[in-house]
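Researcher: Let's walk through a ligand-bound prediction step by step. First, I give you the protein sequence. Second, the SMILES string for acetyl coenzyme *A. Third, you return the three-dimensional complex as structure tokens. Ready?
Model: Ready.
Researcher: Here are steps one and two:
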Amino acid sequence: MEFSLDINHLFPERVSILDHSLVAENRKSAGRPDLLVHVATVIDEMGRASAKAQQLTAPITSASKLQSQRHHLYLLKDREGNGGRGVVVGFLKVGCKKLFLLDRQGAHIEAEPLCVLDFYVAENVQRHGYGLELFNFMLQHKGVEPVLMAYDRPSPKFLSFLGKHYCLTQSVPQVNNFVVFEGFFLNRTAAQLRKTPLKKPEGDIKPYSLTERDVVHQEQRVLPWPFVPQSPQRLVSSLCSRSHSVGSSPSRAPPRVNPVSALGVNRDQSPQSPLIERCRVRRTSQQGLVARCSLYSRHLDSRGVGLLDGQLPGCHLFYSHLCRHPRTMTPAAAARPP
Ligand SMILES: CC(=O)SCCNC(=O)CCNC(=O)[C@H](O)C(C)(C)COP(=O)(O)OP(=O)(O)OC[C@H]1O[C@@H](n2cnc3c(N)ncnc32)[C@H](O)[C@@H]1OP(=O)(O)O
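Model: Step three, the predicted complex:
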């Protein structure tokens, strides 16, 4: 991709590694705000091109996102292009994410693997081996094997790429959009994988991680009340928002509402009061139900059938009631089991 900028000046190496500072191994732009602006222009433009190629509604890579996240972006250039000023060929963005995965036996596993989050090679030079060069560079830099990584909703081209170059063809089915392959669970120490119960005793569930792409889609998805953001039941959406926080960037997390004040409980009341304690216990289980139903509503197949039916008993009744009678329930009733 050509820019009016001097790419060779901005990015001296064939592959530049950028982090939140945008200058990780590119000393030239360190302390030079004018060069940083140009680096940001290149990242933003590449992010937009990648989103377009993947038909995403918004870019998942931009300079501002990179600055607010602990990701690494590998940027490949061709020194000779554009009359010797250099052209940007593509980029690869990776980062660690806490994921809740299912192993081959269907057990819930908590892991924090390195994930491929975005990957793009300019259209006119795809299938020339540049993607492989970028990917191999990243593997060496991170000291990781492709089978131990997770992939954020890989495109058909990327799946074909992984199959061709790394023989990654057999994926282990997940309920989120991250893809992991056979061998992911085998070659890890117990410390890297932790079995987790789906439901915590207090009713506070562990969420399935949202992908970067999910978040873009989530922002536009219409959910029935009480899952509608900005509805009178702001409480519910704010409670549910906690489940978005894992695996997604802080910048995308919706504003938090103190659940105590949102439920109308006076914060000055003594926590030792038995009445308050009963309320607290009940409130916790109500929050758990609402959060479970929110999770349920986010995992429906194209026919509207819940993919988590087996794991979240009772939620389908509650959810279908809300779909049929979206405004008949009070907040208290919404939190009550059907
Ligand atoms: C988690 C994510 O980031 S998902 C998003 C992945 N990015 C995209 O889909 C954006 C559009 N695609 C691209 O930018 C590129 O095709 C990439 C990044 C996937 C691969 O980069 P390339 O430089 O094309 O890969 P490279 O030349 O090293 O390898 C070629 C192999 O990739 C796969 N591939 C590349 N382009 C295509 C294509 N148009 N159709 C099908 N497979 C393709 C094939 O397996 C191909 O091997 P083949 O030519 O023998 O069939």
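Researcher: And what stands out?
Model: The CA atoms of residues 26 and 227 lie 45 Å apart. The mean pLDDT is 73.
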